[in-house]
Design brief:
A hairpin with a 5-residue loop joins strand 7 and strand 8. This protein has a three-stranded antiparallel β-sheet. The chain has a two-stranded antiparallel sheet with strand order 1-2. It has a two-stranded antiparallel sheet with strand order 3-4. The radius of gyration is 25 Å and the shape is elongated. Helix 1 runs antiparallel to helix 3. 47% of the residues lie in helices and 12% in strands. The chain contains eight helices and nine strands. The chain is α+β, with helices and mostly antiparallel strands and 257 residues long.
């Protein structure tokens, strides 16, 4: 009895976090909160610059992205999840990560329970003739337990690895959407076309200058030679990144403050 309590709690947590990830506003940017949203993250002048969304016709906050599926800009956009029918963003990323973590535990527990059952039945009847009596009808029915076990065995590592990946990018201070941008930065460095240049306002920014244009570009600039030379403006440190995910700022809190 006591051994069932942890898995029951995990299942409850899994259902709760899934429902919250689906139902929670991910951080939609609208005319009522756009100024507040733009104040949450500074423009790093590398991944994000001040601009206007061509679809929403609103200022684009740093770290936001327009979702073509939902038709709206989302703060700290990670990705659009078809399983949630919702975007994962500033306000519901914690529920999404909680859902993944609890689902991983459910899958691992399922592997243990189903694997134990299959091994026991194999010991009694052999895997080739796995059958179980249906006490209600007295008939023998084919047992699909082995097939279900194989499915869960394949699913568990996939979900666990995806959970680990999501946790890793949170700890490093970026999102799935930003990871693609960082890969582009790394590629530009490898190609020798990324430079630190002085902007019109006197501030430094990173800009791609193609090789055929470098000689004609008279601006003062210095090449970026390593990704370690590039600072992630949104990385607060491991624990602060986790804390920010679990307790994100909200428009309502800002009003009360």
């Amino acid at each position: 009895m006591h051994s069932r309590i942890p898995i029951a709690l995990t299942l409850a947590a899994n259902i709760f976090t899934y429902a919250m990830a689906c139902a929670t506003d991910p951080g939609v940017v609208d005319s009522g909160n756009v100024d507040w949203a733009c104040a949450q993250f500074k423009y790093d002048r590398m991944l994000y610059f001040e601009s206007t969304c061509r679809t929403c016709h609103l200022r684009k906050p740093a770290r936001s992205k327009h979702c073509s599926v939902c038709g709206r800009c989302v703060q700290m956009m990670d990705h659009h999840c078809i399983w949630l029918n919702n975007c994962v963003g500033l306000n519901n990323a914690r529920w999404f990560l909680g859902f993944l973590a609890s689902f991983s535990m459910v899958c691992v527990y399922g592997v243990y329970i189903l694997g134990s059952a299959v091994l026991e039945l194999r010991h009694r009847t052999g895997l080739a003739d796995l059958m179980v009596p249906d006490e209600a009808s007295g008939k023998m029915v084919k047992l699909l337990l082995a097939v279900l076990t194989v499915f869960v065995v394949l699913l568990a590592p996939i979900i666990t690895l995806f959970t680990a990946y999501q946790l890793r990018i949170v700890m490093l201070g970026y999102t799935t959407n930003e990871e693609a941008k960082w890969l582009n930065v790394a590629a530009a460095i490898d190609d020798g076309v990324l430079f630190a240049v002085c902007g019109e306002d006197g501030g430094e920014m990173l800009e791609v200058v193609e090789k055929e244009d470098q000689e004609a570009d008279s601006r003062e600039k210095s090449p970026v030679v390593s990704l370690s030379d590039v600072v992630n403006a949104y990385d607060r440190g491991l624990w602060q990144n986790l804390r920010f995910l679990v307790f994100p700022p909200t428009h309502q809190r800002a009003k009360l403050g």
